[in-house]
Amino acid sequence: MIAWLAPGDPFPPVERSLPQPNGLLAASGSLDADRLVAAYECGIFPWYGDNDPVLWWSPDPRLVLMTDQFVARRSLVRRIRAGLNAGRLEVRLDADFAATMQACAAPRPGHDGTWITAPMIAAYGELHCRELAHSVEVFDDGRRIGGLYGVALGRMFFGESMFSIAPDASKIALAALVALLRSEEVPMLDCQQKTSHLVSLGARAISRARFCSHVESSVRRSPIDWQRWRAAAVTDLLRQY
Predict the structure, then answer these.
(1) pLDDT tens column, 6-18
(2) How many helices and strands (H and E) does the chain possess?
């Protein structure tokens, strides 16, 4: 059995998460920005389908990307350098957060529906208005070709989803985000659950206990100045690859 959360109820300890399905902790009937903040501060995230209640997860182990271990393969570096040298490649921060979420919500080949529901888009949009959620967007000659979004609390970034409509576009967005986080001395990026794609980029699994301990200390640190980065040349961060 898992806990059913009424409005205002605290999350149960993450140690109560089910082993199967791995990390399922609680359910609730609604989703809002305050609940999301409380969840991320505890190492919990929502993931559910359109016709399901809101399901809350804290898997063990947890997939993370240490920013100093990001793997930029030769093919990705070649694509970045070619785009920069041609003057076509541009990375923007928070150019259109809502459009990025909508693009991430689009059905993937071979899959029906999406877990990025309308209530999720509204709740994360509120976090964006509070400077707690951000998008990294990749443009080729002015056309958005990929991006990602996630939640930022203190010195912790929780990755949520990526999209790409051109080769390596989401990887370029991740490379830019990693470079930004490195410059801000943010050592860990949450990837939530294991995928071969993220592992190929350097992500690895750590224990839930270690992850939650890191989150607890990181979210209390002074936040990144995202407004400054929006005004900066984020694209230039890619020149380090």
Answers:
(1) 999 999 999 999 9
(2) 8, 11
The dihedral over CA atoms of 162, 163, 166, 170, expressed in degrees to the nearest 10, equals -10
Total Cβ atoms within 10 A of residue 22: 15
Amino acid identity at 148: L
Residue located via tokens 């979004």: 149
- Between strands 188-192 and 204-206, the pairing is unpaired
Tokens describing residue 214: 């890191």
What is the bridge-based pairing of β-strands 54-57 and 24-28? antiparallel
214-241 pLDDT, tens digit each: 999 999 999 999 999 998 889 999 999 9
The CATH number of the structural domain formed by 63-240 is 3.40.630.70
How many Å is the Cα radius of gyration of the chain?
17
Per CATH, the number for 3-59 is 3.30.70.3550
